[in-house]
Amino acid sequence: MCKLTKKILIFAEKKTKQTLIKTMLTQIINGKIFTLHGWIDGGSIVIEDSKIRDIFNSSAPVEGVEKVIDAKGGYVLPGAIDLHVHGGGGRDFMETTEEAFLEAIDAHRRHGTTAIAPTLSSSTNKMIDDAAATCDKLMADPMNGIIGLHLEGPYFNPKKAGAQMPEIIRPINPDEYKDLVERHPSIRRWDAAPELDGSEEFGRYLRSKGVVVSLAHTAATPEDVDRANASGFSHATHFYNAMTQYHKEGMYSKAGTVEGVYDHPEMTVEVIGDGIHVPVESMRLAHRVKGTDNMALITDALAVAASDSTKAFDERVKIENGVCVLSDGSAIAGSIATMDRVIKVAVTKAGFPIEEVARMASEVPAKIMGVYDRKGSLERGKDADIIIMDKDINLTGVVQMGREIEVAKA
Fold this sequence. Notes:
The protein is of the alpha/beta class and 410 residues long. It contains ten helices and 22 strands.
């Protein structure tokens, strides 16, 4: 046999093997599907491996489908994306280990979070380095659903520390943040108080690296917000919480950080949607001013979320009246919420239409984090990240990257 003939046969054998690779087809049927063009009642979605292959306006069987998921007339929505979450299932991302990351991610996945930005509270440089190294590794596998590491601090105004560990809060350090960002591609968002010295350089540098820059734990004046926005700050962390609002200084009224953010229509905000951190009236006001396009819903959940545990990573934290607080009563801390609860609160208590809530829980976070090309909406070719909710806004189904996930028991 000549060499050319042998090469042709080897190529043909490889090609035959490739064509024999079997894809997995799943069909979600009998759903009220929320798409970019509105609702499809009684429609179906066909998933090929980890991607959405087609969306149909009927639930007729599709040839080759091996698995059928019956939505039973429920809402079929894009999977929730949590921009701000510290832990869950009894584990905290500040533990920095792969085991802690994966257990927390899995706990929230079972409550409808199909993509996640693991969040560190103000941390030491070593803790950030260790967590970022873990996140770099885990983010390489899209099945983990990680869309980037979120650093909440440590460059904050000590007077607005809230539940942040005050001993770790420190001035902005260019050598520190530049070194971390250069070495860790998973760092995709970083929060700071824009009134601090060096904040404008911080904003410009991070923005140049494609990192989302957000203001947080701040007493920024509207003028500070103006400068921050011009230097790259485009987002406001847990809007209303740990920031100043309209107030009096002596006899005179002063606008605060909240009003400064409202004065910039292009700035996005995130709101803790547990119904406790932010009154529903304030949620409605934020939505009225910012609109759906610029408002995301988050959990800000701590390790105690989605678990039977009552112990947070920070020993000062305890659970009281359905929320985490500091034991001395000085500040409210993170939540025990999950994204399915946030969605339900936004619909049933704040009174938002479910289609608007679906966008604030998925599309808007995806756009903020720069992953809307593959997540955040139900479209052909996008990741098959899907949740199903019944008419009472209870979570009944989760599909993440094409895999059906067991839903946590209510």
